[in-house]
Task: structure prediction
Amino acid sequence: MSNEGVIYRISGPVVTATGMNAAMYDVVRVGHEGLMGEVIELHGEKAVIQVYEDTSGIRPGEPVLNTEETLSVSLGPGLLTQIYDGIQRPLATLEEVMGVFITRGVDADAFDLEKKWTFEPQASKGDEVTGGNVIGHVQETETIVHKIMVPPGKSGTIKDIKSGDFNVTETVCTLEDGTELQMMQKWPVRTPRPFTQKYAPDTPLVTGMRILDFLFPLAKGGAAGIPGPFGSGKTVTQQSLAKYSDAQLVVYIGCGERGNEMTEVLDEFPHLIDPNTGKPLMNRTVMIANTSNMPVAAREASVYTGITIAEYFRDMGYDVALMADSTSRWAEAMREISSRLEEMPGEEGYPAYLSSRIAEFYERAGRVETLSGEDGSVTVIGAVSPPGGDISEPVSQGTLRIVKVFWGLDAGLARQRHFPAINWLNSYSLYPQSLDQWFRDNIAQDFPEIRTQISGLLQTESELQEIVQLVGSDALPVDQQLTLEVARMIREYFLQQNGFHDVDAYCDIHLQYQMAKAILTFQDAAKTAMASGAQLNDVVNVPARSDLIRGRFEKGYINDIEGMVKKMTNEIADTVETN
Amino acid sequence: MTGKEYRTITDVKGPLVFLNKTEPVAFGEIVTLRLANGDIKNGQVLDTSDDLVIVQVFEGTAKINRETGVTFMGDVFKLPVSTDLIGRILDGAGRPRDGGPEIVAEEKADIIGAAINPYSRQSPHDFIQTGISAIDCCTTLVRGQKLPIFSASGLPHNDIALQIARQAKLQDSDEEFIVVFCAMGITAEEYNFFRSDLERTGALENAVLFVNLADDPAVERIITPRLALTAAEYLAFEKDYHVLVIYTDMTNYCDALRQIGAAREEVPGRRGYPGYMYTDLAMLYERAGIVKGKKGSITQFPILTMPGDDITHPIPDLSGYITEGQIVISRELHQQGIYPPINVLPSLSRLMGSCIGEKTTREDHKSVSDQMYAAYAQGRELRGLVAIVGEDALNERDKQLLDFSGIFEDKFLRQSRDEDRSINETLDLCWNLMANIDTKYLVRLDQKWIEKYHPENRA
Result:
């Protein structure tokens, strides 16, 4: 048997070849046009291949060439600011080669192999190095230093290390045993990159979104699922996270989503400024765009391509956030291929291995000690698009079993134009216990207690609302009417956030705490005043409260809020005297 | 191998023909089948291997037997395209239906259509004025968008689609749209309605019609929209036209897809529809848009009828995940005699934000649209409450909102089938109607717009 076979059968994206020596997950070139494919099943001497490009016009009898490599990504300087398709072909290069429509049979390097980067050695002759050790730095973008690492599995004593300008395929370091190291390395996408050990997460991923940071925080190295029906704002939430979260690097996977929306992201991101560094956001971003009409097998691969790139940057000691929008499309790609393979289906036609694949993917998140002893993390945030918004379906359930944070988007809230439309009653985060210490140390000693009070008020409101539905709010005692007012303030002033507003889109975590405190201060002041005979109506309508609420849209709010709260407290106290 | 005729059919099942002992046949290759009586049918290869080839026959498999001769044409399905298409009526497989001559091809285009590189797309941002207030104000249409109409049986979605086709224009521009109309499994009566309306308004001269009627072969429906979109792409990206593609009814298309899936004994997904329906629909819907460096554009208006008025049914559900919003037609409003019965609450245009505002429509558009929506939503909710506690239990604000919801439906939604309101007229109308609510309750309106546009301040 050789590494060349012939096509036996073609059924959509699934091609069967015979007479070829193949192993599972080998990458093959199919047909005269050399379409890229991957071996996904073996039957005797037949190899079943999923093809990443359209197979129309291909005939049985055409050749299949086994490259005997597994599906891998190229890793090295040049990754950042790139926009790739699902199998790491840069979309800009594809446009140059094929024009505006994506045709097939074109191979493109993941990044410029000729470009010279300035390599600054961080190790010297005679040093013992092993896989993961950093041997040099490249200032890849203004904000990110790309650390050149010894590929996992290689080790030895440095015989020679260079300094100066090199392209990614030139040797920059030679080991005693003759191993030559370049700045570019390859890694198979379906294999997690190795690390020394996983730690428990203890630092939050600060997103600037109040409902997320304050009520349902996500840890760096954690995993979150965002399920929601169409039109509930999944994509906007994912994009806000990509823009404002305090991860050092972001990998954004547009997996099987809308072309025009992807274009919006591609147009918008290069103009956005990272609030944490003041530099263009693209400097820290890698994007993968595989829209819904691009080949389904490449969609299946896109999430693996993305997470491997994320892990590579994690290994340099960075905190990386990965957004996958949407994992349901990835699952559907698995289903489609599985059905072409005539596999026995599990629930709703999905393959039986669906939940284990989902679990394996999310398990690649985590905060780790890297091979070189540094602390790095990959945080995964996956959008889920359940049919009809019903989260009892397999993809949502498979996701919820593994993630620790659930941000449930709600069509009802979206319809009321309450954004982000995250339902505060059914969402949850299992991280507060491990993060509370961080919040106490870095924000305020009573941060967790304030959070408990706020969520308690929201809970009480939902119970009261049931009564109001029946008898109207006027029938409630005044203290409960006040509770409703306070809860309304939480919803409208705190939870609602305008993702498109210059100031409001990103809310500093210290400010979040201040705002939450302001609400509780209002509640206390109102209670005191009303105990001395003030009217609820007067208390609620003090002008300083409107100023406080409106103030969140103004710059410098964090400096003014304290004064505003004081003024409000005084005015509320005055309502007693005017009575 | 073109020309070689095989008589090796082994099985015929539903729309599928199985044959063996062929020379290598390409995936997706076009096939002709010659029946004993000389009739010709067409098909396409769905699965090919050394041992067995599966052909999907577009015209149905009636009269096919083991004696039927099968010829492989050596190429995938292509549509002859040229500007001669404009003004023509073709059948669901692309043959003339109007008695005219064959289309003289300027080129032949593969009907599957390649995906547009997302990097090469241009974000849509040109406002299309449809003259229908509910759409222009609340779910604004953008050139290059795909915005389906979610309707149900017995509702006037066809009138709305035609009104849009008639009135759609760019503001301050005389540029006309070329309408590509794609009928899938609709009745002859509906078709005649569309056709006579297009004829009446003279729009037929600027239209291309692909027509597969209810009594035409169901399997043909699989290729009809692909032909229509191929024609649209040619006109938009080769000939610089702005194209509006209307297809009706997507539900019949999906049912045809299910029929083939069942015949192939595929594992069915939800409600028996194939698992790849999302990808399949995306391959159609995603052929909308604007491309860098090309003047033309494709805007899509798919119409689908929701079985049992159920928006969670797989067809509207999967469509909603791909399209950029939806316009939902309401039976309740229709029964109240309101035309167009558009329920703005579940309707949405995802691209609206990019095309409204000072430079394109009017500075107050967003504010007005948000306020109209919010006030109507609250008013509708109060109707439920009033049914329980009675109108007297409402406070002043709620009473005003309740009244407003009626005014909204009667004055804002309702318009005649040939009433073409400009965006300025629509927005002014909104202000006049909102004047029925105390200004202090209009919290979503910016103060500066109230000062400028509120009737009290303009008088």
Q: What stands out?
A: DSSP finds 13 helices and 23 strands in chain B.
